[in-house]
Amino acid sequence: MTQTTTVLVIGGGGTGVGTARDLALRGVDVTLVERGGLASGTSGSSHGLLHSGARYAESDPEGAVECIDENETLRDIAGHCINDTGGLFVQLEQDDPDYFEEKLDACHEHGIDAELIDGDEARDRVPDLSEGVERAMVVPDAAIYPSRLTAANAESAANHGATIHTNAPVTDITVSDGRIERVDIGGETNTTIEPEYVVNATGAWADKIGAMAGVDFEMKPTKGVMISVEYEGLEPVLNRCREPSDGDIIIPHEGEAVLGTTSIEVDDPDDYPKEEWEVERMFEECGAMVPGIESHEIRRKWWACRPLYAPDESNRSDSGTGDERGISRDFTLLDHADDGVENFASVVGGKLTTYRMMAEATADHVAAELGVAASSTTATEQLPGAADPAELDRLVAKYSEPQPTDAGVVADLSGSTAAGD
Ligand SMILES: Cc1cc2nc3c(=O)[nH]c(=O)nc-3n(C[C@H](O)[C@H](O)[C@H](O)COP(=O)(O)OP(=O)(O)OC[C@H]3O[C@@H](n4cnc5c(N)ncnc54)[C@H](O)[C@@H]3O)c2cc1C
Hints:
Helix content is 29%, strand content 26%. It is of the alpha+beta class. The strands form 3 sheets. Strands 5, 6, 7, 13, 14, 15, 16, 17 and 18 form a 9-stranded mixed sheet that branches. The longest helix is centred in the first third of the chain and has 17 residues, at 61-77. The site of flavin-adenine dinucleotide has 39 residues, from helix 1 and strand 18.
């Protein structure tokens, strides 16, 4: 069977569903295919931090401003896909006070609310916080639930005419006369799609889809571990205020605290070692902020791969910045007309926090290619179900199941509801 569509979006993480939604709201006919359930790639296995931008404030002002802008936008449109926990950047006695001052100043300069509090006040807010915390800054970090977020984006796209196929891996791409002619889909969907335009939003797997279309570019994925432990009553996100390193963030997820993470290059995002030393490192490092956290019972541990684009990463190394984690995970839109395939683009890199902005930029590009004049409305239109967590959880079951990041928050209704087609 062969189907036609104006735009085929490949990949059902934040970037793909965001792009499908943006185009559908502009009146474009869209089909999205995802090889597993929505958010089953990196998005649903991320740390689940809605960045305030404070993490990047002194090292990457542009990335920091993108984060605070999107943080505010998502608070308006995404409702219960977010939990407004607030966040603290804590300075331990062994941390550089100048780094703290630099971050605080940079936050103020770039429009990120950052309030200085002393160690005692920080411990009033988080009683288990180390006696070694000398001071902290309060920032508008929050927790984000990617299973709900991707499902709500997909539902919005579907409500505007998009077709969403899960369990639909792209298995082959046929290019003819410099254009993608056909895309073969396996799995339960098992069909061929003839698209006018193709957006590759497959994150850490993007170079594999590129290769199917004869386009050569390289991703440079890095893995990170997350460990969820039982923890009642942690309110704010805890960030260690030092140059970004292993195990410097703890995120509250309703009855759990999620410790993370590492950043280690891997060759294949589907097959890489998941090492016990990474887990131990999380307990050591996070234990410096919250002593005794290692004695809390582990609920889940999981790994994910960052969708980093190799040329961006090389440029960062060239700039001599050393550890790359302090730098914003910028995104790149690759127009493969430059590689001889006219109707094909890949969107790589970025952060879950900035998925909507990446999607808007991608949809702007596609709209220009197709001659569509309508502009993006995703920054102001509420996501379906945003006000109702039960409805969001129903949507998760429709398109997927709760993913590791938010499995402790999102009700698992996947056994009781038909999966998305
Ligand atoms: C350890 C770690 C922690 C992170 N923590 C945070 C955080 O706290 N906050 C934040 O903002 N960002 C965080 N990030 C970054 C963020 O998670 C990612 O940048 C973002 O989720 C990527 O979304 P995406 O849609 O581009 O990719 P993905 O979510 O990976 O989506 C790509 C999709 O493509 C699908 N796919 C692959 N091949 C095919 C195929 N052949 N056919 C069909 N579909 C296919 C995959 O199954 C996948 O679902 C973290 C990343 C990592 C690795």
